[in-house]
Here is the input.
Amino acid sequence: MVQLLNEFDCERTLKNGTYWMPFTANRRVKEDPASRIITSAKGAYYYTPDGKPLFDTLSGLWCTPLGHGHPRIVEALKTQAETLDYCTAFQMANPVTVRLAERIAGMAPNGLDHVFFANSGSEAVDTALKIALGYHRLRGEGSRFRMIGRERGYHGVGFGGMSVGGIVPNRKMFATGMMNGVDHLRHTYDSAHMAFSKGQPDWGVEYAEDLERLIGLHDASTIAAVIVEPVQGSTGVLVPPVGYLQGLREICTKHGILLIFDEVITGFGRMGDNFASQRFNVKPDMITFAKAVTNGIVPMGGVIVSSDIYDTFMTGPKNAVEFAHGYTYSGHPLAAAVGHAVLDIMEEEALISRARGLEPILEEAIHSLADLEGIKDIRNIGLTAAIDLVPASDAPGARGLALFELGLKNGLLLRCTGDTVSFGPPFISTPEQLQDMVETVRRLIVSVTQ
Ligand SMILES: Cc1ncc(COP(=O)(O)O)c(C=O)c1O
Here is the structure.
């Protein structure tokens, strides 16, 4: 394999497009493919073919909070591959996966006691939406078929997640394939009232009332579930106003609507707590998770479900499959073994409290950029933050792209979407690494906005 790769011309193959890159401006990559190749990673850094480090400012895609190449994870993967490398999850079980379900349920808010495994955030979301439909049908309320998402929400790219999602470019090309009956809450971002907030904005609790508007329009008897990210990650760390999530919870409970928190980014410590629902003290009926559960090393996702929902499914003839859903790789033993190693490391190295301890350091560093011209907003919560650049008047998104490309030349792998740059550094980062990251970003922003 190494020999093969030594002879392999990665740049040429990127140029000819044999490899179609996901969520990527492929033609832009072809202009300079060499700058887009990473060959190894260790700790909080990626390395380019010529050995240059790139600080991992987003923990991969929000998924590698423990950094890269942790020897205990490597060992767990190897041992599991030697012991039980695959096991069907249909009608059979293995102790590694079963115990992981127990550990995850133990980390979740009380009453969310049952775990259904998938392999990605998108699959987790589609699973949760199907559980919601099944739940109402089993209770004799099959008329509840609508899902309510939120503008600017991201719930993956399956047909379900895409339909409840609220990012226009992800939707418009596939508009004819949308799920029936989906509607969207207004997003909660208002720069006039919230710009440069630290943590949760005090303004905007009334956005929760938007759910009453949709209930007034559709009638509660047609609505199955509301799905929101507690903090909207992919559209640039949109932090919920104080009281907003509580408001959604109350309205859902009043109308018999299930509340799903999509915690694919916020789960497993990113908010300084196991889950964002604990940080914000709001208990949903289901939590979707993925990413950090395995430190991004082997794909895994899943849904944590309330006992009320689980018990509703556990009815009917005993020999019947209660939920006709699942994936060939649901609860894959390799992913489960990695999940255990990740949770062991998080516990033993107290990494979730470390993330909490780093929050004020990131907050102070990132808000120190507020004096720069060319910045519209800076916001943060947990170990996440985002900066909105003022877009160039003739080319929205151009400054974000320029910043990303400059980052590669200056030791940072940045996550820029449009003119927004998001940060979700590894929990193992040191305060100095966070401060250095922000200082480099300062220099780069000056150069792209002047
Ligand atoms: C909140 C949320 N849900 C779902 C997904 C989709 O996850 P995946 O890319 O693993 O399918 C993401 C991915 O970033 C996400 O942030």
About this structure: The mean pLDDT is 97. The first strand starts at residue 40 and ends at 42.
